[in-house]
Specification:
Structural class: mainly alpha
Largest sheet: none
Radius of gyration: 17 Å
Mean pLDDT: 93
Number of helices: 3
Shape: elongated
Amino acid sequence: ALLRLHMASGLAILALLVVRLVVRLSTKKPVNANADAAPALRWLATANHWALYLLTAAMVSTGLGMAQLGGLFPILGGQPVELPKSFSELPPYAGHGLFATVLSGLL
């Protein structure tokens, strides 16, 4: 039940990320809240903002990779599946953990 919730949450985050990026890239950019800040700080804020998007996409991508390689997608429909002996055996696992750590650090 927890894995199904985890997977469904990841897919919801992917959908929200796509909607957010479409809105962000198709609408007029608002006035920069940091207009009075030093240029280096403005650059750092922008870089951090885009890093959040990139790391979120990377988390979803590695999660989808683990679900595909582990044959876990039927869980979303409530069907039983045999779980891998260890998720760490799946190649995307290392990236998923790394991206989670870095994303947490950026937040």
